[in-house]
Amino acid sequence: MRYGVSMPNFGEYGDCRLLAELAREAEATGWDGFFIWDHLLFWKGLDMPIVDPWVALTAIALATERVRLGPLVTPVARRRPWKLARETASLDHLSGGRLILGVGLGDPVEADFAPFGEAIDAKTRARRLDEGLAILVGLWAGQPFSYDGEHFRVDNVTFLPTPVQSPRIPIWVAGVWPNKPPVRRAARWDGYFPIKMGAGGIFAQVTVADARAIGEYMTAYRDAADPLDLVVTGRAVGEDYARGAELPTALAAAGATWWIEGFDPWNSTLAKPRDAIRRGPPGR
């Protein structure tokens, strides 16, 4: 099991220097990854500081030497894939091959898509995501590449340099569990980041039973021999730090490969995440 931290890119966390400082502390205390959200607006009508995630990830890469880093997740449907290809390859070089690209449909559409005239229909966003991933991989290859899709077109271009990582930058696909299409999409790539929703649209914890069911379902759609990452988020580093390892350990036994310590931007002050980071990964 590897352990990471996930931070919003808005509110108290909407500061590149602060995120880089927290990433440096996470590396020093033994965490394996430091990831940030990717939002233009998080809630329509709620004005607050928001930092560009790619500028922040650049600062994080320069402040660290070991931790894996990346967006968790970037909504490819509102990105230009060729611009994302340049950003990701550049960041992979800057970080010495430490980038993991988390991708998804994007949410909330009312804030991140609709105000800018972007498509909000889930099926349309899914098709744009799949086309965007195909273009990313094509451009990362460093060979002449063309693509003629429903939403994107590329006409015989070559992008250099290629990413540091071979055969390419790892891609984690996020989706709301138990919806099956995102799991099938993830099985074609390198990992699945399940998001579970409870009553009233509140995030719920992915359970050990969920992890087992996800693993069984992904295996049925996996062609490649390489294992998939199963990336589970939650809060383990709480008031009772001694018991913090129980859930990640149980999830690891059920097939999870990453535990991502997440922080609710509405219900925690900066002091709590900083304290959790300084305590280090649960169980180590």
Short description:
The protein is α/β, with parallel strands linked by helices and 284 residues long. The chain is built from 9 helices and 12 strands. The relative contact order is 0.15.
Give an account of the 3D structure.
It contains 9 helices and 12 strands. It is an alpha/beta fold and 284 residues long. The protein has a single domain, classed as Luciferase-like domain (TIM Barrel). The strands form 2 sheets. Strands 1, 2, 3, 4, 5, 8, 9, 10, 11 and 12 form a 10-stranded mixed β-sheet that branches. A two-stranded antiparallel ribbon has the order 6-7. Helix 3 crosses helix 5 and helix 6 packs across helix 7.
Q: How is the secondary structure organized here?
A:
Blueprint: E1 2-7, H1 16-28, E2 33-36, H2 53-63, E3 68-71, E4 74-75, H3 81-94, E5 101-104, H4 109-112, H5 122-140, E6 145-148, E7 153-157, E8 171-177, H6 181-187, E9 191-197, E10 203-204, H7 208-220, E11 229-234, H8 246-253, E12 258-262, H9 271-279
Fill in the keyword field for this structure.
10-stranded mixed sheet, 35% helix, 12 strands, single chain, two-stranded antiparallel ribbon, alpha/beta, 284 residues
The radius of gyration is 18 Å
Largest sheet: 10 strands, mixed
Number of strands: 12
Give the tally of structural domains.
Answer: 1
Helical/strand content category: alpha/beta
CATH superfamily: Luciferase-like domain
Helix segment tally: 9
- CATH architecture identity: Alpha-Beta Barrel
> What does the overall shape look like?
globular
By CATH, the topology is TIM Barrel
User: What share of residues are in beta strands?
Assistant: 15-25%
Query: CA-to-CA gap between the ends?
Result: 11 Å
Mean pLDDT over the full residue set: 93
Low-confidence stretches: none
- SSE pattern, N- to C-terminal: EHEHEEHEHHEEEHEEHEHEH
The percent range for helix content is 25-40%
Which CATH class is shown? Alpha Beta
